[in-house]
Amino acid sequence: MNNFQMYxxxxxxxxxxxxxxxxxxxxxxxVGAQTTEQGDCSKFKANIPHCCKKTPTVVDLLPGVPYNxxxxxxxxxxxxxxxxxDPQAAISAFQVSVGQAGTSNKTVKLPKNFTLLGPGPGxxxxxxxxxxxTNFLTPDRxxxxxxxxxxNVTCTYSQFLARKHPSCCVSFSSFYxxxxxxxxxxxxxCENKSKCMKSDSKLxxxxxxxxxxxxxxxxxxxxxxxxxxxxxxxxxxxxxxxWRVKIxxxxxxYRMNYxxxxxxxxxxxxxxxxxxxxxxxxxxxxxxxxNDTGMFYGMKFYNDLLMEAGPSGNxxxxxxxxxxxxxxxxxxxxxxxxxxxxxxxxxxxxxxDTYPFLPNSAHPNxxxxxxxxxxxxxxxxxxx
Length: 384
What we know:
25 strands
């Protein structure tokens, strides 16, 4: 399995893969993964298969299993990195020994109805398609062998199938306006409003309050937006040739921490990033002629883990960008991002008419001569 998504990884509790056998196949054994159910194997007397179900469901093994159960790129608890973050960790593999399937490419039939949970819904899988057979090299790399058959299955992800509400929201602020544009109310739906927890609640000290549930039901901090994740974009400083932005990501879910998180931002000035201070950064080029999208992610062993809601439930960094004097402006919300994605999910932005705006007397680059003259004149009148 290859996760070719540039900025959406599959996090804990990991992927779940399923399919329907075309005939009466059984799985004799597996290495690197296991099925969740054995099924009815009563017709087998001596050797009992690993799984006899017509529709097996396969999950990855956990780290630390015995070596004789492992396979290359297996045993990570179903967690797969995004391709843009770590291509080597974006692969998962296992081996299946299948019985009663046939012995030639004429008698072997392709499985159908593939399903993928990663870890929840949202993926839709197409039919299996026969492709040129995979080749294998012997250990001395002098001989090549060929698989009997090889087929590919492609699964695509849709946020609209995964959930009916966004899972994150965005707020804005700036140095030139005291107004803080907060996330829209009920940006992520208010179904959990009655079950949320206030930040000063004594229940938070109970043992096990942070333990995740099997169905991944969140325990959210009570907020007006009711989102598990909030991304804050603050326009911090405006220099002569550069400008600086502070980005803060806050977790409001008491039952989940986010490993290998990713943040994708679309903004026209990301084509000239000078320095990112506390995050790793990689430009994304969806179109070769447009460089306006970038991916931020945590530094390994430093801030690649976003802790659960609480005092440690946030990560932040600053970004220094060089100005393009033909396009740079602080007017009409130009300094704020066009789109924001957290872990591959698009976040809800505030309405454009609520963005922090420049005061009437302010200029994005300098103080006007008329304003300075009025101030001097007023000072002279007062002294007189």
